[in-house]
Amino acid sequence: MSPFDEQWARCEPWLAAALEHAHGTHLIEDIREGCLAGNLQFWPGKSAAIVTEICTYPRLKAVNFFLVGGDLEELLAMKPVIEAWAKRLGCTRAQCGGRFGWERVLKDYRRACVVLEKEI
Fold first, then answer.
1. So what's the pLDDT on residue 45?
2. What is the tens place of the pLDDT at every residue in 83-119?
3. Residue 29: CATH number of its domain
4. How far apart are CA 60 and CA 90, in angstroms?
5. For residue 40, what are the domain limits?
6. What domain count does the chain have?
7. CA-CA distance, 99 to 74, in Å (whole number)?
8. Within-domain flag for 28
């Protein structure tokens, strides 16, 4: 088993739990494939894991914290490391979406918009 596979197997439950709040956009297999293809970045911790993606817009580049799961304290400790990595890649913004509770925890972030959805 590869090091990626070992880390993925250990962290997959945290990511799968976070994916339940993504409103059906991906399956866990899609996330794994995206990480292996290099479209997504997998950040395994001891008791937590994060999946990011780099979003390139016409006027800026942003790191998007796409999936975040596991121990909250460890996740918050991982955040500045990932933000510094993204800054070295030329990102000038960090963004995330998720449950309303994240707004209370991420005090250095601001609400940028509201996302509304409906099935059609």
1. 98
2. 999 999 999 999 998 888 888 989 999 988 877 777 8
3. 3.40.630.30
4. 9
5. 3-105
6. 1
7. 18
8. yes
